Amino acid sequence: MSVPSGDPRARLAAPHTLSHSFEPLTPTAFLRRAARVHRDRLALVDGERRITYAELERRTLGLAGSLAARAEQGERVAVLATNSSVLLEAHYAVPFAGAVMVPLNHRLAVPELSYILEHSRATLLLCDEGLAARGEEVAAALGGGLEVVVEGEGYEQLVAAGEGFEPEPPQETGLLSLNYTSGTTGRPKGVMYHHRGAYLQALAMAWHARLEPGSRFLWTLPMFHCHGWCFTWAVTAAGGTHVCLRETQPKAIWAAIESESITHLNAAPTLLLSIAATAPSLVAHRATSEGVPPIRVATGGAPPTPTLLAELAELGIEVTHLYGLTETFGPVAICEWKPEWDALPGERRAALKARQGVGNLIAEPLRVLDAEDADVPADGETVGEVAVRGNDVMLGYYEDPEATNAALRGGLFHTGDLGVMHPDGYVELRDRAKDVIVSGGENVSSVELEAALASHPAVFEVAVVPAPHPRWGERPVAYVVLRPGQSAAAEDLNAHVRERLAGFKAPDAYEFRAELPKTATGKVRKFVLRDEAKALQLDQSPSC
Amino acid sequence: MSVPSGDPRARLAAPHTLSHSFEPLTPTAFLRRAARVHRDRLALVDGERRITYAELERRTLGLAGSLAARAEQGERVAVLATNSSVLLEAHYAVPFAGAVMVPLNHRLAVPELSYILEHSRATLLLCDEGLAARGEEVAAALGGGLEVVVEGEGYEQLVAAGEGFEPEPPQETGLLSLNYTSGTTGRPKGVMYHHRGAYLQALAMAWHARLEPGSRFLWTLPMFHCHGWCFTWAVTAAGGTHVCLRETQPKAIWAAIESESITHLNAAPTLLLSIAATAPSLVAHRATSEGVPPIRVATGGAPPTPTLLAELAELGIEVTHLYGLTETFGPVAICEWKPEWDALPGERRAALKARQGVGNLIAEPLRVLDAEDADVPADGETVGEVAVRGNDVMLGYYEDPEATNAALRGGLFHTGDLGVMHPDGYVELRDRAKDVIVSGGENVSSVELEAALASHPAVFEVAVVPAPHPRWGERPVAYVVLRPGQSAAAEDLNAHVRERLAGFKAPDAYEFRAELPKTATGKVRKFVLRDEAKALQLDQSPSC
Q1: Residues 300-339 of B with CB under 8 A from A
Q2: Is B23 in contact with A391 (Cβ distance < 8 A)?
Q3: What ipTM did this prediction achieve?
Q4: Which of A221, A296, A361, A529 is the most buried (most CB within 10 A)?
Q5: Which of A7, A20, A290 should be substituted to probe chain B, the one whose Cβ sees the most B Cβ atoms within 10 Å?
Q6: Is A332 in a helix, a strand, or coil?
Q7: Which residues of A touch B23 (CB under 8 A)?
Q8: Candidates B20, B203, B401; nearest CB to A389
Q9: What per-residue confidence (pLDDT) applies to B544?
Q10: How far apart are CA B208 and CA A33, in angstroms?
Q11: Interval B6-31: pLDDT, tens
């Protein structure tokens, strides 16, 4: 019953495990299975390109063969790409090769990219066509040591050269990828993902999203961001089809939804707002007809507002609210919906859906901790820091023991997000720690203010940040985008807020904008607004 | 980043793992999660009894506390119960306590049960009310050393006494349970299940069966059999409701389907035949109306026939065909359905559905091997032995190194089932391992029966083969050669068998012959007898 020493798994498995009953968990296993079970079914659509699962396996094993031949185990392979076949293929080829994937945010500037490539010690950079020039620019900035391979001839040569490669099973808690977070402070940190976490997270996502072999998933969420919340592997696990979208304009999204019969997509609420605003009238009509299944949308980054939920429901779009961070393989939490909630009034349903929820199927419970890392009471009122541990938590930050120790103190990952624990065990965020506005010693929640303002009919989008105030320390300022054709004055909005919240919470200033600064994943870049707000001369008259 | 030595996981996790990013996989985790997320939702219905998830956790932790207090880690706790709350609770309480579960087939005779209890070294036996007398009988037969706790007062005392118990995480590849199987050879073997396999198998089942928080699963498949194909944990993972059925008569099944709004059940084709034959006319009517979701049924043990599939479709019952063995945590394979197959003609669909299929979501690929353990060609014609390895394969047979080494030779579990590999990668069985008789989904070992009959003084030689039976699928038939000068009637032999084995195993017919057909080397040519047995008209009266 012992493992034969010639077995490659002998050195990988813990001593007590047996090769016949132990296979390391790795997300590439889902492609191996799909290539057997769904071999002639469509894995991937990218413009004109249509690739079956058998072909996706053949291509990624070929690329892996070339990668494995040119370097040692653990080589860093970075990818600079939009939501394209190149980026999806890298999710399989790089780990097949025993290499470590470094997905890059293509909206970063050359100095930021250079920093990440240098810090991760990447030796190879894969680029899609549209980002080839940028890739070369970064390589030049690094002054050598980084080989660039661009989609097309060079890339296809690698695919062809490695044909017939057979990968070795990885160590399941070994390093899978480095995901650099665009931390709001200082240098980006390299979040270390492991195979086991990605495998289990993908299983959880496949189940929660109800992905099936007939599913057609539209890539609007960037694949470079937490590996697209691990849907890069979850869709494959289910045997569904990945539909890539290199440019995520709402019109292109609607065109793809129609032409590719999309069943699922993931997007931040900001993108969903644009999607709802540009829906073809046809869609609303069709959505109301019987027998048309809803499009399942997972959203995160900010809670969906009641208004947005109502608009999407009219389009036949069913929203699941997820919550997570790069450090937790994306969605560690889900606002898990209970069948009996369907019968509640719309407003109550929206309030329940705005909560970040509970640990996902494979996650450990979310906790909300006070300053001494003790659980706060589950009263829906006491604010604490959200923390979690478990199989979908990072190994640590690459070569940054100080940040690692700080984030993982006490064996728990501290998210930096502030929230409350409701009596029913669901967590609701109140704010990022840094987004709380401390006015005269009182905490004012920017999220709460944003929800109040978003419920005004003229408001399309809003972000609230603190501005320095000589008397109160900080006071809230609202940055508002109005709906096209609508108007509202600061006084109107202020009256609206004061009907809903304590007077001291109402913003001191309203700044009207055509659009808000956003990250690639659609999150409002609040630090930009905070910087702007610093320049405001807030009135010294009593605000509270 | 090292694991603090005070952390209980320090000794459990492999050295390279970190407690913040590593939690041992164990199926009890699904109850911990359900008790948080679905706390007030119904976990369990058993007659009048209705238990929420919070209550199920409280009760099983209490029982676990009592179990942990009375014995060491790794104690064997056997369970003799129908599909009842007692048996479901044991699936959580026993592993919570760090003990090893031994589920018993309640149809076995006292000597068989005694053998299993002795072999497994069980010290405690939990019984449901209806099997209390049998439990006491077995304990008496063992002559001490086995404590019996019966549903009701004694059981509730254990539940209450251990309240507040907090379980320790197990070693994930450690022993979870011993599942005794009456395979092809005489004595039952104790199949060793591990936590990791049960966890992953439950996740796969939850996904394949499309279990959801609103699911209501009817327990017709025995929970003692491969832990009910791991649905004892999968339904909990999904947050669905377990509906227990202590007696699985078709009328009771239909009554439960109606009164408990059942969405899912598992059953062998033999039981499905009875279910189809006794459907209330109301059901067929309702099933044809729009908007009524189908009842999802998973079946295994034998392929569903086209007639059965057609009858079930008319009742709004959607069938998934699974395949597995006790050694593979139940369904290691699934006939995974592809959306495009829906458009095929009914006969073709039935032929596709009759195949055992492909490895499930978390399983490794099924293989079909020739005598030298090389893969047979995927031509749909070459017959070989089905074999598999992976995370849902047993550790081995308890204290039976010989049988373990034979079954796991070359690091692969050899199923003893013969099949072909189709060109599309789906496996189809051609023959059960030739000596096993599958009666009503239960394995009856011909070798075991032959041994029992051969022990009768008048029997010279005997061979047992299956004969087709309209209700049970197969029933055993014994071909007997009497000793010269001796005589015995069928009734005598039957009484002899029933003294030694469970009643359901006793042959339905005894054919007396002067000699048995043999090969040149003296082996009984069983296929000749099987052919003869096909012509027998077995009585339709209940055999079991």
Answers
A1: 336-339
A2: yes
A3: 0.86
A4: A221
A5: A20
A6: strand
A7: 364, 389-391
A8: B20
A9: 39
A10: 14
A11: 333 333 334 334 589 999 999 999 99
Nearest residue to A216 (alpha-carbon basis) of A248, A260, A247, A181: A260
Angle at B48 between CA B43 and CA B50, to 5 degrees: 20
Q: Is B14 on the interface with A (CB under 8 A)?
A: yes
The rounded mean pLDDT for chain B is: 89
Of A21, A38, A336, the CB nearest to B37: A336
Site from A26, A37, A200 to mutate, B interface, most B CB atoms within 10 angstroms: A37
* Contact B394/A at CB under 8 A: yes
In whole angstroms, give the CA distance from residue A540 to residue A530.
Answer: 19
**CATH of A52-196 given 3.60.150.10, 3.40.50.300, 1.10.3720.10, 3.40.50.980:** 3.40.50.980
- What is the model's pLDDT at position A82? 97
Give the C-alpha separation, B175 to B112, whole Å.
23
Dihedral over alpha carbons A179, B13, A362, B54 (to 10 degrees) = -140
Q: Do B14 and A173 touch (CB under 8 A)?
A: yes
**Domain ranges for chain B:** 25-218, 267-431, 436-534
The domain over range A436-534 is classified in CATH as 3.30.300.30: yes
Alpha-carbon distance B524 to B274, whole Å?
35
Interface test with A, best of B37, B171, B367 (most A CBs within 10 A): B37
A237 interfacial to chain B (CB closer than 8 Å): yes
Question: How far apart, in whole angstroms, are the C-alpha atoms of residue B204 and residue B196?
Answer: 12
Residue range B401-417: average pLDDT? 94
CA distance A412 to chain B (A): 6
CB contact under 8 A, A336 and B213: yes
Q: Do domains B25-218 and B267-431 have the same CATH topology?
A: yes
What is the CATH architecture assignment of B267-431?
Answer: 3-Layer(aba) Sandwich (3.40)
- CA dist B59 and B46 (Å) reads 15
CA separation, residue A342 to residues A299, A350, B214 (Å): 19, 11, 11
Per-residue pLDDT of B459-483, as tens digits, reads: 888 889 999 998 888 999 999 999 8
> Which residues from chain A sit within 8 angstroms of residue B173, using beta carbons?
14, 16-17, 21-22
Q: Indicate the pTM of the whole model.
A: 0.86
Tell me which chain A residue has its CA closest to the CA of residue B406. A1
| CATH number of this structure's domain B25-218 | 3.40.50.12780
Residue in A25, A358, A412 closest to B20 by CB: A412
For residue A294, pLDDT over 60 is answered with yes
DSSP string, B381-421: ---EEEEE-STTS-S-BTT-HHHHHHHTGGGSEEEEEEEEE
Q: What's the pLDDT score for residue B374? A: 95
What is the C-alpha to C-alpha distance for residues B394 and A21, in angstroms, rounded to an integer? 6
A37·B395 Cβ contact <8 A: no
| Sign of the torsion formed by the C-alpha atoms of A246, A249, A253 and A255 | negative
How far apart are alpha carbons A251 and A232 in whole angstroms? 23
Class of domain A267-432: alpha beta
Per-residue pLDDT tens over the stretch B47-83: 999 999 999 999 999 999 999 998 777 899 999 999 9
Nearest-by-CA chain B residue for A18: B395
The angle, 0 to 180 degrees and rounded to 10, between the axes of the packed helices B53-70 and B29-37 is: 140
B4 touches chain A (CB under 8 A): yes
CB contact under 8 A, A337 and B213: yes
Tell me the average pLDDT across B305-331. 91
pLDDT at residue B309 is higher than 90: no
Q: Are B40 and A435 a contacting pair, CB within 8 Å?
A: no
Give A105's contacts (C-beta < 8 A, 6+ positions apart): A180, A182, A222, A224, A225, A520
Q: Is A409 on the interface with B (CB under 8 A)?
A: no
CB atoms within 10 A of CB A503: 10
